[in-house]
Design goal:
- The protein is of the alpha/beta class and about 210 residues long.
- The chain has one domain: ABC-type transport auxiliary lipoprotein component (Rossmann fold), CATH 3.40.50.
- Helix content is about 30%, strand content about 30%.
- The chain is built from 3 helices and 8 strands, in the order αββββαββββα.
- The protein has helices at about 20-35, 95-110, 180-205; strands at about 40, 60, 75-80, 85-90, 115-120, 130-140, 145-160, 165-175.
- Strands 1, 2, 3, 4, 5, 6, 7 and 8 form an 8-stranded mixed beta sheet that branches.
- A hairpin with a 4-residue loop joins β7 (about 145-160) and β8.
- It starts with 17 loop residues before the first helix and ends with a helix.
């Protein structure tokens, strides 16, 4: 008696319906858009200026202090008094305090006659320390007008005396035509440059 050979039946996966497939492709496309990198901007250090002063001292510049709202890479916007938000289409290349510290040191190197300006821990014996507190660094919207506002509090500390030798608040305002990443970053950079030049000139005559 001849037996017929058995034929194994393959289990084939059913085809996905068209609509669920399109929905899946749409979800993947949206996920790709959501993960797109946020445009990143930098602050510049002013270089085309000079500051008076003998330049006989060495100074360290610690990382500026700031509230949590400013201690971030995000660019702050104040749409109304007491309210804060952040730009969705822009960010700084580093946390704002670290970025300002670097540009502050470069500004002193570019415009003053100090023998050396450095970070704490760079191995120098410094006679002075410049403490900076970031009070405001963002866009303020008032009466329908947008303005880039930078306000820094500066204190010169004499390390030998252990006391404050001088203190002052510096601020600058630059109009913002449109609240978008590139325009806001450029306006804040311009305001920051104004403040950095003022701080360097103010501090340099005290050494």
């Amino acid at each position: 008696m001849i037996r017929e050979p058995r034929v194994s039946k393959l289990s084939l996966s059913p085809r996905l319906p068209v609509r669920p497939l399109l929905a899946m492709m749409t979800a993947l496309a949206l996920a790709a858009c959501a993960s797109a990198p946020v445009p990143t901007f930098d602050l510049s250090a002013p270089g085309n200026f000079t500051a008076r002063g003998a330049g006989s001292g060495q100074m360290v510049v610690p990382i500026p202090t700031a509230l949590a709202a400013l201690d971030t890479e995000k660019i702050l916007v104040e749409p109304a008094p007491g309210q804060i938000t952040y730009l969705a289409d822009a960010q700084w290349g580093d946390r704002l305090p670290a970025l300002l510290q670097a540009r502050m040191i470069q500004a002193f190197e570019n415009g003053s006659k100090l023998r050396r300006v450095a970070r704490p821990g760079d191995g120098i014996t410094a006679e002075y320390q410049l403490n900076i507190d970031i009070r405001t660094f963002g866009v303020r919207v008032e009466n329908g007008t947008s303005t880039a506002v930078v306000e820094l509090s500066a204190k010169i500390i004499g390390n030998a005396a252990g006391r404050i030798l001088a203190a002052q608040v510096f601020s600058a305002r630059v109009p913002v035509a449109t609240v978008n990443g590139a325009t806001v970053a450029a306006a804040l950079d311009a305001a920051s440059n104004q403040v950095l030049v003022e701080i360097v000139r103010w501090a340099s005559v005290r050494f």
